[in-house]
């Protein structure tokens, strides 16, 4: 997608649009989590400085970059298939260069260059600032690789180029890496140690987005609740920080508060929260500020204490219920969503039933559910046999999904007859006469366009619904 002048900002000064000067074309695509999509916007910004404009046509590209995901084997297979496609295009455009970014680059390192002949460039998630040098090497005819992980890189000083943007919602990354070491998860290995971004640069990005017409941001991190800024560096070194650093430290609830106050009309979301790190302060801050959306993505993975322990999730089923109860007490109308894994090693039918009964207790608004996929190098891969047959994993997953669909429908139907605030994001896919937007609980709502436009906050009276979409009519602009 071509950029507009507006999207080219460096620090606080708007620089003249240099699109005309950019002669090279970058095709960049992302797989996996929101963080990857956000990282691609950082990469596009770094390459803009190198004379690249983005293109949505693979055939036109001088440089093709794929930002990859390693979370499950299937995600990696998808990327391998895309490389085949690039290969076919390269036959007609031999000068085209191909680079692999993200978690697969970090996991496979130079193996990528050996296994996939088409790949010229391998760059891990913390090495994007080295892209200009790496590309210079590629220009000289060498393969190039940088997969060094960092203890302090947050890209806080890079102003992202928004890609495929609706102009209304944007991601703002606040932490990188993860220190939690869940035994099934490859992320700590591919994204390195957890570090937090300077709150000042976060606020500047949010202010900049607001000035460009954006109305909703999602603060991103693998584990946002452990955000801690005391001047930079790893969280574990906080104990060595000076008294002044400790006194002025900003934790996640404080960051939420600063963001909510900096732009009181901007909707604020965040993702993801690991239950073991979520504090009461965060929930209270959500309750205090109207512009922080009442939705918490709170992955639990399993309802069985034994499996939670084997996963190194540092809370029990009971503690999770206490957290849910606290959320519902402080924010009675809070939407809660989940991630679940079916068929973790040693999972019995009883463990599986514990997962279903936990879901019955919470009745999540929605969820992301998967069968367990063994990932090389993780603790689970090294210590446990992947001993649940695929057929059993799939059957358990099906039961989990069916229950979730039932709960999602129930949660959707709770809105019938009520009026909800909707932020308009786009035209409805089903009708040109209708707008589509989301409620603060992240539920899609469609309604006749009237005189409203994209980016408006509108009160919508819900008259009907499908399983996961509200249908209604606008009853006025929200204040
Ligand atoms: N904190 C992260 C979680 C990253 S992974 C976040 O911000 O989303 C996203 C989800 O993928 C996890 O919550 C988990 O449910 C799932 N997942 C991770 N590793 C997996 C594996 N090895 N097999 C199956 N699902 C996995
Ligand atoms: Fe992965 Fe657990 Fe961190 S799921 S990203 S190790 S919180």
* Rounded radius of gyration (Å): 23 Å
- Secondary structure category: alpha/beta
Beta-strand content: 15-25%
**The CATH topology of the largest domain is what?**
pyruvate-formate lyase- activating enzyme
Record the strand order, biggest sheet.
4-3-5-6-7-8
Average pLDDT confidence is 94
Q: Which CATH architecture of the largest domain would you pick?
A: Alpha-Beta Horseshoe
Terminal CA distance reads 33 Å
In CATH terms, the superfamily of the largest domain is tm_1862 like domain
Contiguous runs where pLDDT drops below 50 for at least 5 residues:
1-18
Bound molecules: S-adenosyl-L-homocysteine, FE3-S4 cluster
Number of helical regions? 15
Report the count of strand segments: 23
CATH class of the largest domain: Alpha Beta
Helical content, roughly?
25-40%
What about the largest sheet? 6 strands, parallel
* Outline type: globular
Describe the structure.
The chain has helices at residues 34-48, 73-92, 102-108, 111-115, 131-139, 187-191, 199-211, 243-247, 252-262, 280-288, 305-310, 317-330, 349-362, 379-383, 390-413, and strands at 9-10, 13-14, 24-30, 52-54, 63-68, 97-101, 121-123, 144-146, 169-173, 175-176, 195-196, 216-220, 228-229, 250-251, 267-271, 295-297, 335-342, 366-371, 419-427, 434-438, 444-448, 457-465, 469-477. It is an alpha/beta fold and 479 residues long. The protein folds into 3 domains: 8-146, Rossmann fold (3-Layer(aba) Sandwich), CATH 3.40.50.2300; 169-413, tm_1862 like domain (pyruvate-formate lyase- activating enzyme, Alpha-Beta Horseshoe); 419-477, Nucleic acid-binding proteins (OB fold (Dihydrolipoamide Acetyltransferase, E2P), Beta Barrel), CATH 2.40.50.140. The protein has a 6-stranded parallel sheet with strand order 4-3-5-6-7-8, sandwiched between helices. Strands 19-20-21-23-22 form a 5-stranded mixed beta barrel. Helix 7 (199-211) runs parallel beside helix 9. The chain is globular and about 65 Å long. It starts with 8 loop residues before the first strand and ends with a strand. Bound molecules: S-adenosyl-L-homocysteine and FE3-S4 cluster. The site of S-adenosyl-L-homocysteine has 17 residues, from strand 17.
């Amino acid at each position: 997608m071509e950029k507009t002048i507006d999207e080219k900002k460096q620090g606080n000064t708007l620089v003249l649009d240099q699109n005309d000067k950019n002669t090279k074309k970058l095709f960049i695509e992302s797989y996996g989590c929101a963080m990857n999509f956000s990282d691609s916007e950082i990469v596009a910004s770094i390459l803009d400085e190198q004379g690249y404009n983005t293109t949505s046509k693979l055939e036109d590209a001088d440089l093709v970059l794929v930002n990859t995901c390693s979370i499950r084997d299937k995600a990696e297979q998808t990327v391998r298939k895309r490389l085949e496609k690039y290969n076919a295009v390269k036959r007609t455009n031999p000068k085209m260069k191909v680079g692999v970014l993200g978690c697969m680059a970090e996991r496979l390192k130079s193996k990528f260059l050996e296994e996939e002949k088409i790949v010229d460039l391998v760059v891990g998630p913390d090495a994007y600032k080295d892209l200009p040098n790496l590309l210079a090497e590629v220009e000289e005819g060498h393969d190039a690789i940088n997969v060094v992980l960092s203890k302090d890189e947050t890209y806080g000083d890079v102003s992202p180029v928004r890609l495929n943007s609706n102009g209304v919602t944007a991601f703002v990354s606040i932490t990188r890496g993860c220190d939690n070491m869940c035994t099934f998860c490859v992320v700590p290995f591919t994204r390195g140690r957890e570090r937090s971004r300077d709150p000042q640069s976060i606020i500047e990005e949010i202010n900049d987005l607001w000035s460009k017409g954006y109305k909703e941001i999602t603060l991103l991190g693998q584990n946002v609740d452990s955000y801690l800024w005391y001047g930079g560096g790893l969280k574990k070194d906080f104990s060595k920080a000076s008294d002044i650093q400790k006194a002025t430290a900003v934790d996640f609830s404080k960051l939420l508060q600063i963001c909510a106050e900096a732009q009181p009309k901007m909707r604020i979301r965040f993702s993801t929260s690991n239950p073991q790190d979520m504090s009461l302060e965060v929930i209270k801050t959500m309750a205090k500020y109207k512009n922080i959306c009442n939705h918490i993505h709170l992955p639990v993975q399993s309802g069985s204490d034994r499996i939670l322990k084997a996963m190194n999730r540092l809370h029990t089923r009971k503690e999770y219920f206490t957290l849910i109860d606290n959320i519902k007490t402080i924010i009675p109308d809070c939407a809660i969503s989940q991630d679940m894994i079916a068929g973790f090693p040693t999972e019995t039918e009883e463990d599986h039933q514990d997962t279903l009964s936990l879901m019955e207790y919470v009745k999540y608004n929605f969820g992301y559910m998967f069968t367990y996929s063994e990932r090389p190098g993780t603790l689970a891969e090294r210590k446990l046999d992947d001993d649940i047959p695929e057929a059993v994993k799939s059957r358990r997953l099906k039961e989990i999904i069916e229950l979730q669909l039932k709960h999602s429908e129930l949660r959707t139907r709770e809105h019938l007859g009520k009026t909800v605030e909707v932020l308009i994001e786009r035209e409805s896919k089903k009708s040109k006469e209708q707008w589509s937007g989301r409620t603060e609980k992240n539920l899609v709502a469609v309604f006749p366009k009237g005189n409203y436009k994209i980016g408006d906050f509108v009160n919508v009276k819900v008259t009907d619904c499908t399983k996961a979409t509200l249908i209604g009519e606008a009853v006025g602009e929200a204040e």
